[in-house]
Design a protein that fits this description.
The protein is an alpha/beta fold. The chain is built from 14 helices and 10 strands.
């Protein structure tokens, strides 16, 4: 159990998709100001901070992001750090702030995540992005792969199909469900796109096989996305400082991080040990079990992770993830409302912002602030599962309505 409870006092994000001419310094400032604006406080009330991004060096020519945060008036001279854990950078930023607060470095902190992956016209260079993301793989698994991560997860998808008898249609159904959710999420990148099962299965137009001989198709993939997200965490004393009623917040009741070896080869990625350990540790810290979870956001960078994700959070047994989706158990009214945001597949995947946004959306669900079509009635407990690399770094959280 935590020595003291921590609460999500505020959450704010950009619309995911294209930030165009907005540059990194302005992105960081907007993220901080947006979260503070949600509760009408000045950044000077924040004691600590952390910021996560993955492609600052490779795509934005920018490092020392903590210094950019310190340029926001009121944050200068405060304990701020930048974190990078591939696609789990955002989740890691949240945990970084939580750890600072539990260490007694302050009572209020802010976690920011962002990514700018497109140019100022909103266009993206697929080969450049592929190269930038490829650095998060093991050098021994890069040779012969043009797009390294789609290739690696296509192999995971094939292994899942061969081991569990799942079909390409089973995975396509996950994409269709998430695109349908995204049409009701105004912040989602693909909010204006309707996707049918026939479209997700037909090889024509933009939908193609990404790697020859492997089952992954375009609609099985998450988006190339710009966006930012920011979250303010506080202790009970911090809530008093912010003049926020505890009952208007969500408790960060459990959290954990674990890391598996970077190389995919040689380990059982269909039973990711670190991910399972992190999720179970978060449940234990929160004093709940998987059966208590009403809503969840899982890291579906590819549809196979939508299936594996519901297995990691304990809502589906080993090899039963695709069935969970096929039987509509992941729908808003199902056994557990999973990725009602649209997930990375349709909401978008601004890498550094993703982990923050998953937790933020789950908090909105528990507060009854999700769009009406996506709101899970009476939601009390939420779980999130954020990964980096080939199911390597895992950040898991459990949220509760504040009592």
């Amino acid at each position: 159990m935590l020595h003291q409870p921590l609460y999500i006092a505020a959450y704010n994000q950009s619309r995911f998709g294209k930030l165009k001419t907005m540059q990194v310094p302005q992105i960081v400032a907007n993220a901080v100001d947006g979260a503070c604006g949600e509760i009408g406080v000045e950044p000077a009330l924040l004691d600590v901070g952390s910021i996560g991004a993955a492609c600052g060096f490779t795509l934005n020519d920018q490092g020392l992001l903590s210094g950019l945060m310190a340029m926001v008036p009121g944050l200068e001279g405060k304990p701020i750090e930048a974190v990078e854990n591939a696609c789990a950078s955002g989740g890691q930023a949240v945990l970084s702030v939580a750890h600072k607060l539990l260490l007694g470095l302050g009572e209020v902190g802010i976690a920011v995540g962002y990514e700018k992956m497109r140019n100022d016209e909103g266009k993206m260079d697929g080969k450049l992005v592929g190269k930038a993301l490829g650095v998060f793989s093991h050098p021994g698994e890069r040779e012969g792969k043009v797009y390294i991560f789609p290739h690696l997860f296509a192999e995971v998808m094939q292994a899942y199909m061969e081991t569990h008898g799942a079909t390409e249609e089973d995975f396509a159904r996950i994409a269709v469900a998430e695109y349908a959710n995204a049409t009701h999420n105004p912040d989602a990148q693909m909010s204006r796109v309707d996707l049918t099962l026939e479209q997700a299965m037909t090889i024509e137009g933009i939908n193609r096989y990404i790697v020859d001989g492997l089952p992954l198709k375009t609609y099985d993939c998450s988006q190339i996305t710009d966006g930012y997200a920011a979250m303010i965490l506080a202790t009970e004393e911090g809530l008093r400082k912010l003049q926020i009623d505890k009952h208007d917040t969500v408790e960060l009741a459990g959290f954990a991080q674990a890391t598996d070896p970077l190389m995919k080869q040689g380990r059982d990625v269909l039973r990711p040990a670190g991910a399972m350990k992190a999720m179970n540790t978060a449940y234990e810290m929160a004093g709940v079990s998987a059966a208590d979870v009403d809503v969840a956001e899982v890291h579906d960078c590819f549809t196979v992770m939508g299936a594996l994700g519901v297995e990691v959070i304990g809502k589906a047994g080993y090899g039963e993830g695709t069935r969970f989706w096929k039987e509509c158990k992941a729908s808003v009214q199902g056994e557990c409302a999973v990725n009602t945001s649209g997930g990375l597949i349709a909401k978008g995947h601004p890498i550094g912002a993703t982990g923050v946004a998953m937790i933020g959306w789950a908090a909105r669900q528990l507060l009854g602030k999700a769009p009406a079509e996506l709101q899970r009635p009476g939601a009390e407990v939420a779980a999130t599962f954020n990964i980096g690399g080939p199911i390597c770094a895992s950040v898991c959280t459990v949220l509760k309505r504040a009592a």
